[in-house]
Amino acid sequence: MKKIFAYRVFGLLLMLFLLCGNIRAQETQNKTVMDKHNHNKVEKTDTEWAKELLPEQFRVLRQCGTEPPFTGKYYKNEKKGEYYCAACGALLFTSDTKYDSGSGWPSFYAAAEKKNILEVEDNSHGMHRTEIKCARCGSHLGHLFNDGPNPTGLRYCVNSLSLDFREISSKDN
Length: 173
Known about the structure:
This protein has helices at 2-37, 46-52, 55-61; strands at 81-85, 91-94, 98-99, 107-108, 117-122, 129-134, 140-145, 155-158, 163-167.
């Protein structure tokens, strides 16, 4: 009986060890991809981010939260301009690629600067998705889906709290 218990404990410890190694490998892979994408990385501690961001922004950007659908300030925004990362100011999207997907979040069919968007496999909540993060600071933006319009067929589904919009006036065009 003691032998069976010892084997079970050993098996559980082995599974935990392998799981932790897999998580570390994924984190290392994500960091390597992030390093390759942008050399002007912004690295701050959670304490530093918490001081700079509003609490609801911190929850979304740094803790991979999401805002309720149809509530974000940019969901219905139809002004011409550019969308930047709310944490570090990296250019992410333009109004030219924004469209109403009906999802309840701002949606774009293309990134303004593809190198500023990091795509990460996300298997949370029992789903297989692609998380999008700011390649410069690692902030959570939302998710990428393959159900968008032409010409790309992509839908970057983004939290308004992750974005900072800068309007382009008609004299700037």
